[in-house]
Amino acid sequence: MSDGLLLAQLRVATREQHARLESLPALRRLFADDYTVAEYSRLLQSFFSLFSPLEAAVQATGRKTAASLGYELRSEDLAADLKILAAKTGADTAVPSALTGSRAAETGCLYVLAGSRLGGKVIARQLAGSLGLTADSGIRFFAGSSGNEGHNWAQFCHRAELSCDTPPAREAAVSAAAATFDLFYQQLADE
Predict the structure, then answer these.
(1) Which GO terms describe its molecular function (predicted)?
(2) Strand, helix or coil for residue 23
(3) Which domains, ranges and CATH numbers included, belong to the chain?
C-alpha cells in the first residue's frame, strides 16, 4: 500500500517523536535478556493508563470515529493481561481536549494507538521467547486478537485518508498524533 497524503504527513511529522519514544529505557528493556515479568507488568500498567482514557475519550464524543476507521479497542486486552499477571490497572492519564476536539483530531490520536499494534507483533514474539508468555497468558495486548493486524492497519489508513481529505483536517490529525506521541513519551519516560 502506498502512503496517501495524510499518512505521508503523519509519518514525516512524527518520525522523530516515534524514534524518541522507541529509545526510552522502558521500551528498550523489552528486548533485554534479563527482562522480568515485574518490569513487563509495570509497562502494561503504563500502557493501560494511556490507552484506556484515550479510547474512552474518543468513544465519549459520540462521533464513532474509532468504529468508522476500523479501530479495534485495545484497553480490554491490556486489562485482561494485567489480570492474568495479577497486576493493577493503574491510574488513568489525563487526556488533553485537543485530542478529541474533532473527528480529524481523533483520527490522529487513533493513528498512534493503531500503529502501535504493528510493533506489538515483534514484541509479542520476544516476550514469548524470553518470558514464556502467550496471548492467553499475558501478551494479548501485543500479540493481537485477530491475526489480521496488517490488513486492519491498511484498512485503518485507507479510511483515515478518506476521513481527513482537506488541509485543515490533515493538519488537525497531524497535530493530535504529535500530541499523542508526546503523551506516551511523558508517561513512559518515568518508567
Answers:
(1) heme oxygenase (decyclizing) activity
(2) coil
(3) 5-189 (1.20.910.10)
State the Cα–Cα distance between residues 53 and 46, nearest whole angstrom.
12
pLDDT cut 70: percent of the chain above it: 96
Q: How far is CA 15 from CA 7, 30, 31, in A?
A: 12, 21, 22
Q: Give mean pLDDT, residues 142-150.
A: 75
Instruction: Report residue 67: phi and psi, to 5°.
Output: -65, -40
Percentage of the chain lying above the pLDDT 90 cut: 83
For cell 491498511, the residue is 154
* Longest alpha-carbon distance in the chain: 48
Please check the confidence at residue 91 and state whether its pLDDT lies above 90.
no
Instruction: State pTM to two decimals.
Output: 0.94
| Contact partners, residue 19, CB within 8 Å, separation at least 6 | none
What integer best gives the mean pLDDT of the chain?
93
Long-range contacts of 119-123 (CB under 8 A, 24+ apart): 120/144, 120/149, 121/149, 123/30
Alpha-helical segments (H) within 70-144: 75-84, 103-131, 140-143
Cα Rg of the chain, angstroms: 16
The C-alpha cell at 165 is: 481529505
